[in-house]
Specification:
With 186 residues, the chain is an all-alpha fold. The chain has 2 domains: 44 residues, Orthogonal Bundle (Arc Repressor Mutant, subunit A), CATH 1.10.10; 120 residues, Tetracycline Repressor, domain 2 (Orthogonal Bundle), CATH 1.10.357. Helix content is 72%, strand content 0%.
């Protein structure tokens, strides 16, 4: 069966939807549970994916593809702006329960690794607009910025967190402001 076959496409969509549904219901992510939820055989699952981790990679890739506007930043003032952080919070808010439930799964660590890869795309777009700082130094600051944002998001979405959205945003704003000052040589 080819990837262009309608049956293949339908089972692919069913697998993705099942994966999402199980995460949203905080159920175990197993091939059996996904196959049952998708109303397919386990064998059909394995025609699409070798394992759950591979499905997780594909799910993340689809999710980050929908965040394409973040990759369009081309200078540091856009990247380290309140608007950029507000946009990220908007996307996370739309998917907050998904992130909360995924944070309980081993797939979650792999999910953030994909986020790190996504940040590399943004870095490549922005690095040439930074005239006042060495590219390697900027890369390290940018990685620190991204990792700090992820840590704050993880703390904020955690069910036992005492950090509310406003506090989390303020922390992110301060980190962004600090990074922008360093990058611009102030």
């Amino acid at each position: 069966m080819s990837n262009n076959d309608r049956r293949y496409q339908k089972s692919e969509e069913a697998i993705m939807q099942a994966f999402y549904n199980l995460i949203m219901r905080d159920k175990d992510l197993t091939v059996s549970n996904i196959a049952r939820e998708a109303n397919i055989d386990r064998k059909t699952f394995y025609l699409h994916y070798n394992n759950i981790e591979e499905l997780g990679h594909s799910f993340r890739a689809n999710m980050f593809k929908n965040m394409g506007k973040f990759a369009s930043k081309t200078n540091a003032s856009e990247l380290f702006s309140k608007e950029f952080i507000d946009d990220i919070f908007f996307v996370v808010n739309q998917n907050k329960q998904l992130f909360v439930n995924m944070s309980k799964s081993p797939i979650y660590d792999v999910f953030w690794m994909q986020g790190s890869g996504f940040s590399s795309i943004i870095y490549e777009n922005v690095k040439n607009s930074i005239p006042k700082i060495d590219k390697e130094v900027f890369r390290l600051y940018f990685k620190g910025f991204v990792n700090s944002i992820f840590i704050i998001f993880n703390a904020w979405i955690s069910p036992e967190s005492r950090i509310n959205e406003t506090e989390a945003k303020e922390m992110c704003y301060k980190i962004a402001e600090h990074c922008l000052m360093i990058v611009e040589g102030k």
